[in-house]
Amino acid sequence: MGVIMDRLTEMEAFATVVDQGGFTDAAKKLGISKSAVSKHVSSLETRLGARLLNRTTRRVSPTEIGLAYYDRARRVLNDAGEADALVTSMQSAPSGMLRVSVATDFGVNHLSPVLGQFLHSYPDITVNMVLNNRYVELISEGFDMAIRVGELEDSSLRARKLTETNKRMIAAPAYFTEHGQPQRIDDLNDHKLLHYSNQASGNVWKITAPSGEKRQVRTTGSLTVNDGQSLLNAAIGGLGIAYLPSFLYAEPMRKGELVDAIPELPMEVQGIYAVYPPGRYTQPKVRAFIDFLVDQFRDKGPEDW
């Protein structure tokens, strides 16, 4: 460790002499004596077996070798400085603007109600929650993180699972009274299927049959919407069958406003994730919010919404 520290000290002395153009100003910059600076530089040259500085009575300038060494040394010193700043930042209280992208229906129903508690716990953080139902490019659009439901498409992002939700086909009892209830997947072709326009699979529902076989059903109906809450309202209003996550349909189903379209089908379990940019370092404000959400949804299972 002592050898490494000596090398960094020598590097810093040499680089500062180059930056300041002389030993006197370098000593003032470093807060040590001129002789100490000279000693560090001489020790560095002896260890490397090369002359790094041209010394005249009027000025000091790097040699060709010295200039090449300076470029690499300055990078090393900058990295060391950033490492120190990183530790300081990670130990500091989370603060600053946190920009979060979240699907409108999940944000309104499940994120907005708990934000007050988070902001009370972290008064130095301000949250800018952007509600939308499109895929957001985190880095290019300036988001610190996003909450996403279902299969994660961008494998370059880091992700932490918050909880799970069930997805199933539901409709109002009045709809089935008028149109009959499907008994198997093929029967869905004769029904009005409410389409969510922003789903990754397009206008296709991916359904698992009782046998475990994966099936695809093309949605046909009189309504296409880019918002889950609006689809839910349409289903409750008897306009057709919707394929929605339990965090949307659970309460209306408990009230009897909705029923399962084909109860025999296994439900699709989807993860709900916090995703954030890659890197070895997670900003304290992001880490604090994700930890908070994990705690909030710790006891929420697919059937608990």
Describe this structure in words.
The protein is an alpha/beta fold and 305 residues long. The chain has two domains: 90 residues, Orthogonal Bundle (Arc Repressor Mutant, subunit A), CATH 1.10.10.10; 212 residues, D-Maltodextrin-Binding Protein, domain 2 (3-Layer(aba) Sandwich). Helix content is 41%, strand content 22%. It has nine helices and 13 strands. Strands 3, 4, 5, 6, 11, 12 and 13 form a seven-stranded mixed beta sheet that branches. Helix 1 crosses helix 3. The chain starts with a helix and ends in a 9-residue tail after the last helix. The model has no long low-confidence stretch (mean pLDDT 89).
Q: In a nutshell, what does this entry contain?
A:
With 305 residues, the protein is α/β, with parallel strands linked by helices. It is built from nine helices and 13 strands.
